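Thread: "does anyone have the structure for this chain?"

Original post by V.I.:
We have the sequence but no experimental structure in hand. Need at least a predicted one for the grant figures.
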Amino acid sequence: METFPMSCSSTLDVMQSGPLCLTADQSSSKRRRIDAADRLGDLPDCLLHGIISFLGSRQAVQTSVLSRRWRHLWRDVPCVAIDEREFVGDQWQRFEDFADYMLTSIPLNTRLDSFRLQLVTRTNMDSYATSDRWIRRGLRYFPAAVDIRTALGSTIYWRPHLSYPAAAASQQQPNLSVTGSCAAGFTKRLTTLRLVGVNLTTGFMEDLGRHCPALEELHMEGCSMRLSAVTSPTLRTFVVIEARHSVPCAHLTIAAAHLAYLRLDIPYNGEECYCVTGEAVPEPLASMAEASIRLTETARQQGDNRARRKRKLEFLKSMRRFLGLLPNVTKLHLAGFTTTALLEEETEEFPLLHSLKTLLLEECDVGLRFQALTGILSNTPNLVNLGLHHCTFSARSAKKSRKRGRQPSRGRTSTQSVIWCKNLKSIEIKHREQYDSDVALVLSMISKGMQPAEWRQVKTSTILVQGTE
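Reply from O.Q.:
Generated one for you, tokens below.
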């Protein structure tokens, strides 16, 4: 009777289907064979590679001592994770030797699913030469996903588009005319790139589409970089959290026609901030479905001069213009936005977002007499879910001004008593105690713009939080 080797899928089916029905003699014979054999080692290589890929690289190499069957399995695992945390208590030289051995023991025809590198301690690496070497060797296996992070922000450079000049020790400017791993095609399979605490050099992001022609997800957190443009025809997810060392009042242009998710966490103080624009995009970011943008005003430096205030104002206005480039966004989270960043200065209008279904405003200023909130709800006619978390309500300030015989410096001349938003189904407000009356007024204004039957269908939730002005 002809027999065939068992494939990975058939093996999985057998493992999931439960015990086989065997005769007494067959069962006894099978039991003897299992007792004498490596039961896990009987699995096909593809399954064992999948199991080993869940381990760190150090543990993966250690499986080679289990038996002769396991001796070389780790070399063909499609995931490499060089993690210094696996060497707690060991000397740096031991970790460095292991990383070099690991990255030179993989067959050159291997195509990695992922390459991960994580450093946690400061070392006396020769001008990033060690991490450069590991990144270069990892990329030569054409990884589909790369995850590089350090807790230091000063030990790793991401510069695969450049050569690695020996003159780096003297901190000379990299030679932009000499190409590196990107030109060799080592990033052509890259679909996911995550960088945490990494230094980025000029030129990679500006020509991202050419360097990484298949990239779909880009996540950068706590990275040092001087961005001027992000250009990619394939990028779908773009995340920037707390970019460091940005140039004063730089203009970040995003040109990514297929971008569907965006998260920007931007610190600003008038000295270091990005004015986000879309000037290089012939059309708005029409594919954008979900966006989260957080603005954090950092500590002011001494001498808050006119130039710094002007740059801060320009930055806030740029955020309002950028919101206008998201006409089809359905879910939007805005945090730390002032009225200047929400409303156009002359018309006091919010961008028209017909597709928006869910809006969360967090720590935003809804304006004198709620003019920012009124402008937002007027231009989001299909809004279903509204969240106001820890927002500043300025209606109380306007009332105090009127009592003192003064008119508010900015805002509509009369308080609007109705906010029209007929499609709302859910309202969640988290507020401080001093805003109780303002919250009640907002809910009253919204309810007046709806039929009684429609308003009864709206789920409202008001949550009192601790805190003072």
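V.I.: this helps a lot. Confidence is low (pLDDT under 50) at residues 1-22, 165-178, 278-282, 395-415.
O.Q.: and The radius of gyration is 29 Å.
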